[in-house]
Structure prediction request, 359 residues.
Amino acid sequence: MRVRSTFFLAAVCGATSLSAQSQIVVPTGFGYELKPGENGIRAGLSRAGTTRHMQVTHKNRMGGKTMVIRQVSFRRWARTGDFPALTVQHTMKVGHGTVAPGKMSTVWGNNYTGKLTTVFQGTINLPAVKGGTLLHPWTVTIKFSQPFVYQPTMGHFVCDWQCIAPATSASWYRDARYVKDTANTPSYVYDLGAGCPGSNRRFPTISLAQPTGAVPGSSMTVGLTSADPSVTVALSVLGLQWQSPFPIDLSATGAIGCWLYTDLFLVAPLTVANGTGQASWPLPNITGLGGAVIATQMFLFDKKANAFGVAASNGLRVTLGNLPVGAGNWATDTIYALTANAATGIKVTLDYGVIMRLN
Prediction:
């Protein structure tokens, strides 16, 4: 059986409008995940000698709202070797440009409007990191000397990095991504942990009907299986938090072995029959919603499951996908040079850019 919540549209629109103005991850919107096949970009933070790197992010990937940016963070690409600690000289400039990604010129000054604003000039301490396949945290944060106000009405977001590193230094690879122009960036689902068994001693399990299809303008359908046949009602929960203090042990309530994986931002009942059920949450058709991260879980009214009379499902963390920027437009584009004084740069493959967290 299915239940559809009409409250999610208004609630998430309000929450996302606020978050889109305070923090965003570009060009993908993904703040926490690493997709197989992503690559690293060498220029910009550390490579032997001097480098320059300019990146343009399409305005549709900037959330569609005016944003005050006070700092930018990068994360280390996971799939490379160990990297020793290193201090480098760095200059960062930002601004607006009317030249869309995909049409960038290799002449630096042709890609931005007016003058770029210098927001950082000084040293950056790159931490020692281990290689491997795990996603690294946002280990490098550059705090701006002055806030920069990005306005989508003025064009696309332009970043210009210049870095001077020791001549013998190794490359510090940043996490980057290919982002196609006309295809939705898929959603990603991560399991937060197991639930607790029902009276049939089986663990209720939830999953997304379309794990990669939770994008603006669609519905996120959460399916339930393995519930006890006696269960007729459950609650579907959507939350905006999944980090500390979560998960919360519910054993004190009598629900031994049960965990709460997220806050109760939205709760909707659903009918369960023959151990299965569905909850469907509509997602607003707005660009700024792409990249939002939510969590979901279900709780089943199962009188014999435990002293509390409730069984819990596993928890899921869902990063919503992105809308395409539109036919003929690329999400991001990059040029670079191996000297800060080069008259022109070398163009990198279209739709390829460093992942940055702006806030």
Summary: The chain has two domains: 2-9+185-319, 31-181+325-358. The domain at 2-9+185-319 is CATH 2.60.40 (Immunoglobulin-like). The longest strand covers residues 86-97.
